[in-house]
Amino acid sequence: MQLRIKASDEDRLLDRLHVLINDVPFFGKKGIDLRHRKSKNLDTTISIILAPGENSITASVMNSNGMESYRKPKPVFYQPAAAVSEKLYFIGIGIDEFNESDYNLKYSAEDIRNLAEEFKKKYGKNISIDTFFNKDVTAENIKKLKAVLMKSGENDKVIVAYSGHGLLSKDLDYYLSTYNVNFNQPEENGLPYDELENLLDNIPARKKLMLIDACHSGEVDKEEGIAINKLADSLGLSKGIIIDQAQASQHVGLKNSFELMQSLFVNVGKSTGATIISAAAGNQFALERGDLKNGVFTYSILEAMDKYPTIKISELKKIVGERVEQLTNGLQKPTSRNENISVDWSLW
User: Fold this and answer.
1) How far apart are CA 241 and CA 245, in angstroms?
2) pLDDT score recorded for residue 333
3) Domain, as residue range, for 38
4) Cα(313)–Cα(209) distance, integer angstroms
5) What angle do CA 324, 218, 285 make, to 5 degrees?
6) Which of 40, 109, 143, 300 is deepest in the core (most CB within 10 A)?
7) pTM higher than 0.85 for the full model?
8) How many domains does one find in the chain?
9) Are residues 218 and 312 in the same domain?
10) Alpha-helical segments (H) within the chain
11) First-to-last CA distance in the chain?
């Protein structure tokens, strides 16, 4: 579809142009850079690719002061002459063995294997699966996956699933664990969260989901840690808290953990058009139960896959959120973002 866009600002130069289809940035989260034009006016025609069904198109410009114009929506319904095939791209990253073996987990790799197997059953031949486990989980390998997702189409679906440790640096930047990560300084060999987010940015597929069965290892005071560990033991949960009193001044407790993760994933959802659902347990408390043989968060997803013949993203978030809290007596509270109905798609 050819789309003509006219924009102007009386006072300041135009900085960039954003075009979204069903709340997904067509040109990526950064949009189109207009700074080189050094102009207060824009009159251009761009070509966009529609997906079958409803396409809610919005466009806006930002000026050099960071102010954004009103996003005027233009609904377009596209009915292709022939049925368009749908493919799922599944990216799975599971790590439960580390160079620093004191931090080993039990079921993170199994989480990803189980998810891959279940999605394979749902999609059959219409699925592309790429998985990385343990020693293969490096920042370099994960960055290369962007090339795989660039092969997707507008009507395809993408799921990126991660199971492992989440880590906070001293500056409270969020990292995901890799095999060689320095747990005391995760900026050394850890995977910056932005890099995982980047996998979903500016790819053809518009139905995008990220599942993260990890928490962060922020500090927690000793009393809170002891209380949580006792309750976890009574529930048969196998992971406890790592307490670093040397960094106690950067205390991040359970309540703050939830708020931090919720803020982080809401921002990500807005920028890439992806739906993000995270385990979001407090501190290093992404819980595992020996009787479930999975992380509680992943187990709840697998349970839903077995129980429901089809499910929408909004339904998955609600069902998994309630189930995780039930299984952990409220110790673990997944975070997610309420999506506009225009991007509420069927996961299977």
Assistant:
1) 12
2) 75
3) 2-78
4) 8
5) 25
6) 300
7) no
8) 2
9) yes
10) 108-123, 139-143, 145-149, 193-198, 222-235, 254-272, 296-307, 313-327
11) 29
Residue 97 near residue 135 (C-beta atoms within 8 A):
yes
Same domain as 327, residue 243: yes
Distance CA 113, CA 95 (A): 11
Q: Please give the Cα distance from 156 to 318 (Å, whole number).
A: 24
Query: For the chain, which ranges sit under pLDDT 50?
Result: 217-228, 231-232, 234-257, 268-269, 282-286, 338, 340
pLDDT in tens, 167-204: 878 777 788 999 999 988 999 999 998 899 899 999 99
Rounded CA separation 69/196 (Å): 29
The three-state secondary structure class of 88 is strand
Burial class (CB in 10 A: 0-12, 13-18, 19+), 87: middle
Let me know whether 120 and 199 are in one domain.
Answer: yes
| Element (DSSP H or E) covering residue 19 | strand 14-21
Of 23, 49, 78, which residue is a domain's last?
78
Q: Does one domain contain both 115 and 156?
A: yes
- Scanning the structure block, which residue is given the tokens 């060999």? 189
